[in-house]
């Protein structure tokens, strides 16, 4: 009797395992099929253009992410800072788009577009006369690496004050473009006016190297490095989103941390 009960239990257990295995396999097939269907459905959606970079459904999700970031953003939210002694000496370069070899530094001036037909040409010496600020923080790249780095320059908010850009700073965005026009970013105004956002002309206490954006670059610790445009040629203000290099290649416009 006991032997028969054991045999029945073994048969039940084997049948249960077999049924569970079949069920798991069916669920796997359904999930895999559903995932593949969703992938190809999104892939074939209209909307992928040079301006948006991805299909409409994905772009809508990225735009919603930006809306959430904008609502919770605060100037009191500060990137973690470090002692200057912890900054690396060999600073990695995050990209070289816009860093053409034909750049002539001696002719450089920042073109500050206040309005149509009203553009100032500002020299590096002019910018260096403004109050200097240094920051040492963990620079994060979208490629997955980060480095604690030290930068010096002028707060963007101090630059706005010095050049009486109160009216311009009421707009929603700033746009920055390299002198050769190859690299360009758009920054929401609250992030631009954040107390840690700098127009940088120094790295580790020395003038920026050419491959780090000499003579002037943006440094915005609350965003990924793709927004910290090197070698600023033109700075403008807008209520419409300025074009953005990586947005056009499928990344979200905000790129916040």
Automatic annotation (TrEMBL):
Keywords from the UniProt entry: Membrane, Transmembrane, Transmembrane helix
TM region positions: 20-40
Pfam short name (any one): Oxidored_molyb
Domain of life: Bacteria
Keyword Metal-binding listed: no
Stored InterPro entries: OxRdtase_Mopterin-bd_dom, OxRdtase_Mopterin-bd_sf
Statement: the UniProt record of this protein carries the keyword Membrane: yes
Annotated Oxidoreductase molybdopterin-binding domain residues: 103-246
Protein's name in the database: Molybdopterin-binding oxidoreductase
Organism of this sequence: Kaistella flava
